[in-house]
TrEMBL record:
Coiled coil ranges: none
Family: Belongs to the universal stress protein A family.
Protein name: UspA domain-containing protein
Domain UspA: 150-277
Length: 289
């Protein structure tokens, strides 16, 4: 049977800063066995250029594509294989990515979240906008973090929200990387952990994952009298998971407010890769997972 042609899209600038992001994308492409689309978005042409000098824009895109091709070839050290596609668009990077998240049936987008000022870098506000509006998951990585081998995937959960979509992604990624999953369950009240719903809910999920032959640990986080995002960031600092999966657009017991703010704090408060799963169902998920 012919393998389905699944794709991930990585926003890459053909410069030193983009090299680590590209290596992260290549690592994931290899482990997930998918097609990789490498995209660079160049400056949008002016009204005058679009209407009176369209050939200048076409030439700029052609030259940018050649530059990106040469950059990718240099990083991988060989000719570009057929399962890597080079693409260049002119326009606003976030608008281009949002359009592609709607039309290209992508598994997820991969972007740099380092809030740097190199050509092609996204600002913190642009990263947040993309995460909030994307129709597919977004994996944010930091160009200064390196490319860690994924051994521990952390998932914050609580008893008030659905975990199905994140668990599907976590299960898939854990299987592909031979990684364990750590469930982070929130305990708001000052009660016995052993009697808490937080633990009982986490144990149900743990059993579900173990039934699928996935190693799973539970970490109960006491969030009362503390900033919600700080509890997660402290865990990240201490335990150093290689990946975290969180859900956007959902009320959370961790924050008591829209999780968009909570997600932003986690994404930008740590250098580790954060995989954000959108609340709106993406039809392709049922095929991929």
């Amino acid at each position: 049977m012919k393998q389905k042609d699944y794709s991930i899209l990585a926003l890459i600038s053909p410069n030193k800063e983009g090299e680590t992001v590209l290596k992260e994308a290549l690592y994931l492409q290899n482990t997930l066995e998918v097609k990789l689309v490498i995209l660079n978005v160049i400056k949008e042409p002016s009204f005058f250029e679009r209407n009176f000098q369209p050939e200048e824009t076409e030439l700029a895109i052609k030259n940018a594509k050649q530059e990106l091709t040469d950059f990718v070839r240099k990083v991988i050290g060989k000719e570009i294989p057929n399962n890597i596609v080079i693409s260049v668009r002119a326009g606003d990077p976030v608008d281009v990515l949002l359009e592609k998240s709607k039309t290209d049936s992508l598994e997820f987008l991969l972007i740099d979240k380092s809030d740097s000022n190199y050509p092609g870098a996204l600002t913190k506000e642009e990263v947040d906008k993309l995460i909030s509006l994307s129709k597919c998951p977004v994996l944010t990585v930091n160009k200064d973090f390196g490319v860690p081998e994924i051994k521990n995937i952390a998932i914050p959960i609580d008893i008030t929200q659905s975990t199905k979509k994140r668990l599907l992604w976590a299960q898939f990624l854990a299987k592909k990387h031979g990684a364990k999953i750590t469930i982070l369950s929130a305990l708001k009240a000052n009660i016995d952990v052993e009697k808490s719903l937080a633990l009982k809910n986490a144990q149900k999920i743990q059993q579900l994952l173990q039934d699928h032959d996935i190693q799973c640990d539970i970490k109960i986080l006491k969030v009362y009298n503390q900033d919600s995002h700080q509890v997660i960031l402290e865990y990240i600092k201490e335990e150093k998971p290689e990946l975290m999966i969180i859900r956007t657009h959902q009320e959370s017991i961790f924050s008591n407010k829209n999780i968009g703010k909570f997600v932003s704090e986690i994404v930008h408060g740590s250098q580790l890769p954060v995989f954000t799963v959108n609340y709106t169902p993406n039809p392709i998920d049922s095929l991929f997972l």
